[in-house]
Amino acid sequence: MPPPVKLNGTSTQLRAKQELSAYRSKDKAISVVGLGYVGLPLALELAKKFRVIGFDISASRIDMMRSGHDPSGELEPDSFNDKDITFTADAADLAGASFHIVAVPTPVDESRTPNLKPLLGASHSVGKSLQAGDIVVFESTVYPGCTEEDCVPILEAESGLTYGQDFTVGYSPERINPGDREHTVDKILKIVSGSDRETLEIVSGIYGDIITAGIYEAASIKVAEAAKVIENSQRDVNISFVNELSIIFRQMGIDTQDVLEAAGTKWNFLPFRPGLVGGHCISVDPYYLLHKSIKLGYDPLVIASGRRINDRMPAFIAKELVQALLKADKNPKRSKVLVLGVTFKENVADIRNSKVVDVVRELMDFGVNVQLYDPHASPNEIAHEYGLTMVEAIGTGYDAIVVAVAHQEFKSFTLAKFRSISRDTLLLFDLKGIYDRKALQPDEVIWRL
């Protein structure tokens, strides 16, 4: 693949300025491909100042957005007001834009191998509408090199255009945090990159018009891709460390939370806490880096070890609960357990890659009767994605209760509430460390990581 054409500094700045003027005057439009947790907030923010075409392959989701509803449940209806945006499920409409932003999911498959089908599919759709002078910016999490090595060839093949001469690309990693009302898309510092200086200036200018937190220009597309993939890999490794500590300290009869609070009195101790690591980022992104590294012939020991530990936590928790039931003279196969929360984090409806589901399945494998309750999750989505059924309301007569997600509703529960729905002696698995164990009565148990 030939390197992108480099222009001299003066002409680059002039052409970039002219291009930005065309977008700001709405002579040219911006498309956002993929309108999920990342794409929709970004598209609506852009639509405050630019003319935007929002594309998603799901016609039903597009219908909801046209009526002012976010299918993900993250945005309020008034977020759609006074926005210059056209929603469409017809990929041909992408031809009306000259600056394309791809924000589709990049999950892993059952073997934990990167699943690039959504990304490559989006590249095909954009490529068919690509015109000379267009810019394509990818936001999806990928391994370093994916944009130029996997996506660009598709854009060239579909369009018949030549990269670096007829069109250019950029990469600007998403940093959306579902459920976070403080760090919204406009308030998160934005990394940008481009295949040449002119592209970088245009990409930086467009994002700079909507991002109040500032813009960081990465040295290259690969650097921007790598920065994204290590952000969550770093968190994954750190959480795996404290998860391993929780396993070790349990063998020693030491409370992990007490240890972390004591160690946290040192000024430079990092405040990570043990727990289930699910969702669409922290538990997925490391596999992209692992995949690329192994293809290059290097076996990354630390990253792989962290993933193994975090992936094993659901089985560890389920085994501990079964042992606690046996210790309380209860037959697991005759026990009824309530699991509170199934979304991947608190106060959101997002169930993608929920590790609570793994805990539930592990318990079911032991023959435990599990009742699952979550006021935020969609029962239809849980049934469709995981084949599980949720109860409509919390019952009584539970042999154990697992608080798996720190939803605000569950934080308001008292020990008296849990006692009232327990069959006899309270056995509470507090995976988020919410409740005060000092208020326990004799023989009652609050287990925590």
Please, could you describe this protein's structure?
The protein is α/β, with parallel strands linked by helices. The strands form 3 sheets. It has a 6-stranded parallel beta sheet, sandwiched between helices. Helix 1 runs parallel beside helix 6 and helix 10 packs across helix 11. It is elongated, with a radius of gyration of 24 Å. The model has no long low-confidence stretch (mean pLDDT 93).
Attribute tags:
Rossmann fold, 14 helices, alpha/beta, elongated, five-stranded parallel β-sheet, six-stranded parallel β-sheet, 2 domains, 449 residues, 13 strands, 40% helix
Mean pLDDT across the residues is: 93
The coarse silhouette is: elongated
* H and E order: HEHEHEEHEHEEHEHHHHEHEHEHHEE
Tell me the structural class. Answer: alpha/beta
- Secondary structure: helix percent: 25-40%
Q: What is the number of domains? A: 2
CATH superfamily of the largest domain: NAD(P)-binding Rossmann-like Domain
- The low-confidence runs, each spanning 5 or more residues with pLDDT under 50, are none
Biggest sheet strand line-up:
3-2-1-4-5-6
Q: What's the N-to-C terminus distance?
A: 51 Å
CATH topology of the largest domain: Rossmann fold
Strand content: 5-15%
The CATH architecture of the largest domain can be named as: 3-Layer(aba) Sandwich
The radius of gyration over CA amounts to 24 Å
CATH class of the largest domain: Alpha Beta
Give the number of DSSP strands: 13
Short description:
The chain is 40% helix and 11% strand.
